[in-house]
Specification:
The structure is a single chain. By secondary structure, the protein is of the alpha/beta class. The protein has 2 domains: 2-367, Alpha-Beta Barrel (TIM Barrel); 376-477, no CATH class. Helices cover 33% and strands 18% of the residues. The protein contains 15 helices and 18 strands. The protein has an 8-stranded parallel beta sheet with strand order 3-4-7-8-9-10-11-12. It has a 4-stranded mixed beta sheet with strand order 13-16-15-14. The longest helix is centred in the N-terminal third of the chain and has 21 residues, at 33-53. The two termini are 29 Å apart.
């Protein structure tokens, strides 16, 4: 998390997500979870100091002092996660929360013969991201979104997706160069459809013209879903162009692909001499191009707009940035550009506004994550009024829970992109329970809205106050 003030003295909290990292499992190149936390804390801390000491150079400043402590790994990954929904209350404990809040991480390439069965390695990812509390109770590591690997040419590719989703993986990485498969093939489209059934995203390694090929594959998959009358799966199809800049910062076909409502891009491989070019061209990602996306021709404009608003909260004012996520490829060489890119995004040359920056730093990636919270009696609508509430509530959950399953963030897309609260779900005595933590960003906002799936108002919703989503939207806009 990075807490800053803008040129008008307004305080902003950026939730930080790295959408492309590699975890160390089974001897494959990557970082251990503790290495992620310490390395990224150091990077963001250095950025904060630079913002504080060079105010004229940056649009944002960091006017607070830092102590020399690094965050405790277990507390940062478990107890301190409630800090995500706070605003200026963080100032007193700023060092504790400084760093990246979440990491999308997956295994590196293996040397197994083709086609590859990744089920064993995927299980290793799950085990690596299961923490033990001081009382030795297992909990999912709340800061990490573990992705599995899948080779679409393997005969058990769909089972690999099913088993990975069942064990709690949040997405899958596909590598057409390493696995030697054709991107726009029936096998790939079948995997994409199965991922959509589980509501989990895919990230593809891309370079050169692979982004264009992926665009064709997504368009064909959407077309098939329309023909199969599976419209409910279309907004659950979420595809990330990995190493998007590697497809060409001046390549108009890359930004045409990113304009498709089901396609997103992450920034690893973006070099400093291409920053201005890439972000200037990225603003050509236009909201109206959503209605011209290939595969959706048979649907009306109203159907398309409602479908994607309910799924992603797309709006005209920041559509382009809602398609782009921060990524590094850590610990591979593209990660060396991590700090220069953060400096650029915080500087005067970045062409977007605060909402665009929030999207790129974290909100875009968070919107793609699947959700596990469910409505009804399983969610208790506890509303926070102070930071102490969160400390007590977390301690109570740890005392009585056998396993914390995960968190679902409530994200507001309009008029500004930000985290507005979260639901923590855990098991106790074999029963799943969820607790809602309300945000302190806007204490005056309505506090009675809890969504199981935060981006699809048509499913898994509860409105304790009896208000519908239209009333809620109109109230927030007015």
């Amino acid at each position: 998390m990075l807490l800053v003030k803008d040129e008008y003295g307004e305080t902003h909290t950026f939730v930080m997500v790295d959408a492309h990292t590699h975890i160390n499992v089974e001897g494959l190149k990557g970082l251990l979870p503790s290495e992620f936390v310490s390395r990224y804390h150091k990077a963001v801390r250095e950025l904060a100091v630079e913002l504080r000491d060079n105010r004229e150079k940056y649009r944002y400043s960091f006017p607070w002092e830092l102590d020399g402590e690094s965050p405790d790994f277990y507390d940062f990954c478990q107890r301190d996660v409630y800090g995500l929904v706070h605003g200026e209350d963080l100032v007193g404990d700023i060092t504790k929360y400084l760093g990246f809040d979440f990491f999308i991480t997956f295994p590196s390439d293996t040397q197994d013969p083709l086609p590859r069965d990744y089920r064993r390695i995927n299980e290793s990812v799950r085990q690596a991201l299961t923490e033990k509390s001081p009382s030795r109770k297992p909990h999912n590591n709340l800061r990490f979104f573990g992705f599995g690997r899948v080779d679409p040419n393997h005969s058990d590719a769909l089972d690999t997706v099913d088993s990975g989703a069942q064990m709690g993986l949040k997405g899958f990485k596909l590598h057409p160069k390493s696995e030697s498969f054709k991107i726009n093939s029936k096998n790939v489209r079948n995997v994409l459809k199965r991922l959509a059934e589980h509501d989990i995203p895919a990230i593809f390694h891309t370079q050169d013209e692979m982004g264009e090929q992926l665009h064709k594959a997504v368009a064909k998959t959407v077309e098939e879903l329309v023909q199969e009358d599976k419209l409910d799966l279309i907004p659950r199809l979420k595809v990330i162009i990995g190493h998007a800049p590697w497809n060409g910062s001046e390549n108009p076909r890359l930004f045409e692909a990113l304009s498709h409502p089901n396609i997103f891009g992450e920034l690893s491989t973006l070099k400093p001499d291409s920053y201005d070019t890439f972000f200037s061209n990225a603003q050509s990602i236009d909201y109206d191009m959503m209605f011209e996306a290939p595969g959706l021709e048979s649907l009306s404009k109203k159907e398309v707009e409602e479908m994607y608003f309910l799924a992603f909260g797309y709006s005209r004012h920041n559509y382009w940035s809602s398609k782009i996520a921060f990524g590094t490829d850590n610990p591979y060489p593209p990660a060396h550009g991590m700090k220069p890119l953060m400096r650029y995004l915080m500087g005067w040359d970045f062409p977007g506004n605060h909402s665009d920056l929030s999207n790129i730093f974290g909100i875009t990636a968070l919107k793609l994550m699947p959700h596990i919270a469910r409505p009804g009696s399983e969610i208790s609508g506890k509303v926070s009024s102070a930071k102490q509430f969160h400390e007590i509530a977390m301690e109570e959950m740890e005392e009585k829970s056998t396993r914390i399953i995960g968190i679902d963030l409530v994200i507001e897309s309009f008029p500004v992109s930000r985290v507005n609260g979260m639901v923590i779900t855990y098991l106790t005595n074999g029963r799943r329970e969820s607790v809602f933590f309300n945000s302190l960003f806007n204490p005056g906002e309505p506090k009675n809205l809890i969504r199981g799936n935060m981006f699809d108002f048509s499913r898994n919703k509860i409105y304790p106050g009896g208000e519908g989503i239209v009333d809620e939207i109109e109230k927030n806009i007015s």
